[in-house]
Amino acid sequence: MSTPVKLIAFSGSTRTGSHNQRLIELAAIGARAAGAEVEILSLRDFDLPLYDADYEKAQGIPPNAAKFKAKMVEADGYLISAPEFNGSLPGGLKNALDWASRPAPGEPEIALKAYRGKVAGIMSTSPGPWGGMRGLAHLRQILSGLQVLVVSEQLAVPLGHEAFNDDGTLKNPIYTAVIESIGKRAAQIGRALKDG
Question: Among 79, 89, 109, 166, which one is most buried in terms of CB atoms within 10 A?
Answer without folding.
Answer: 79
